[in-house]
Design brief:
Blueprint (H helix, E strand, L loop, with lengths): L1 E5 L3 H12 L1 H8 L4 E7 L2 E4 L6 H11 L9 E3 L14 E4 L11 H10 L3 E4 L2 H17 L4 E2 L10 H8 L5 E7 L2 H13 L3 H10 L8 H4 L2 H14 L10 E2 L7 H9 L2 E9 L3 E9 L10 E8 L3 E8 L3 H18 L1
Parallel strand pairs: 1-2, 1-5, 5-6, 6-7, 9-11
Antiparallel strand pairs: 2-3, 3-4, 8-10, 8-12, 10-11, 12-13
Helix pairs in contact: 1-12, 4-5, 5-10, 7-8
Length: about 325
């Protein structure tokens, strides 16, 4: 399978490393020989129709800051749009940063790939939060697959679990901790009495929160994931504007202390039942969903199976890269 990789940050670099190190294992276990024929980053692109030397590309990226600096195959300043429709490849992997305001440039990349008859795997929540129903319809119309298991839970197979394991049951509600950064902050505030600002600073120092933490602390990252889940698990056509959202900026250490006295913890919870909302919620400390640190957890409540909970890391380069491989294998099986 020939792959076009758009965006070459932590997740995409983890993917190319796995493809290099596990090349023989992927072939022997799954009969799959993925070849990355093009990689695009902010500086331009690298292209080799026979397949790029991924170790060399990684070295050039670290040394010069862009894959476009690779001799012979580099094309400085060239955008993804120059190759998405014209280059022979079966799958486009979209891994550019999330933009929840416009969804760009990810939405345009995905739309162009689908229209060109290419399968798409994305770990970019922006396009899905804003336009998943339309993108799904476009994929169906063009006879290709759109996969995005890494957008919720990173490497933890939350979307796969809910869709496959519960496919013959009826989901009554879904609730979960969908953002590891805010979960870490609330855990620190509860344990050590830290203020919101102190917990945020600690999360940023440890790399759990971005310099601009708005998407996390204002609940928008969790809302984007909830939007994806609502579309994937139900018959709702949902976009981000349909979710009621409240973040954790107003949570104080004394709020957490008071809840703790009553046997509760405050968590940022996303919930789907009759309504869809994200906001601070009290959970009993005995509730299996009440986890600490940077973990994500989702509870599926279904008619026959009852409550089932899946817990795991919600982010990370290798973890999310593993979800891309999972999606790639799924597409290959359906081709």
């Amino acid at each position: 399978m020939r792959l076009i990789l758009i965006g070459y940050g932590v997740v995409a670099q983890s993917l190319t490393k796995i493809l290099t190190v596990r090349k023989q294992e992927i072939l022997e276990r799954h009969g799959m020989h993925p070849r990355v024929v093009a990689i695009v980053d902010k500086g331009g692109l690298a292209l080799n129709t026979k397949g790029l030397d991924l170790e060399r590309v990684e070295s050039i990226k670290k040394k010069y800051g862009t894959v476009a600096s690779i001799p012979e195959y580099g094309r400085p300043g060239k955008p993804a749009q120059d190759i998405i429709g014209s280059l022979d490849a079966e799958v486009v992997i979209e891994a550019t940063p999330t933009n929840l305001e416009t969804g760009e440039p990810g939405t345009s990349h995905i739309e162009e790939a689908l229209k060109a008859g290419k399968h798409v795997i994305t770990v970019n929540k922006g396009p899905l939060a804003l336009a998943l129903p339309a993108l799904t319809e476009m994929a169906t119309y063009n006879g290709v697959h759109l996969r995005f298991s890494g957008t919720v839970g990173g490497g933890t197979p939350i979307l796969d679990f809910g869709r496959n394991c519960l496919s013959f049951d009826r989901l009554l509600s879904i609730e979960g901790i969908l953002n590891g950064s805010t979960n870490y902050m609330l855990t620190e505030m509860e344990k050590h009495g830290s203020t919101f600002e102190e917990a945020l600073n600690e999360a940023q120092i440890k790399g759990y929160a971005e310099a601009d933490p708005s998407l996390d602390v204002d609940g928008l990252d969790a809302a984007a994931k909830l939007t994806i889940m609502a579309n994937w698990f139900t018959d709702k056509d949902v976009t981000l504007k349909d979710i009621s959202v409240e973040g954790i900026r107003d949570i104080k250490p004394e709020d957490l202390k008071e809840a703790s006295k009553r046997g509760f913890a405050i968590k940022l919870i996303g919930r789907i039942d009759k309504k869809m909302k994200v906001g601070p919620t009290e959970l009993k400390t005995s509730d299996p969903l009440c986890i600490g640190g940077t973990l994500n957890a989702v509870k599926f409540h279904s008619e026959f199976a009852g409550d089932e909970i899946i817990i795991g890391k919600g982010a990370g380069g290798p973890e999310t890269a593993s979800s891309i491989l999972r999606d790639l294998l799924n597409i290959r099986e359906k081709m």
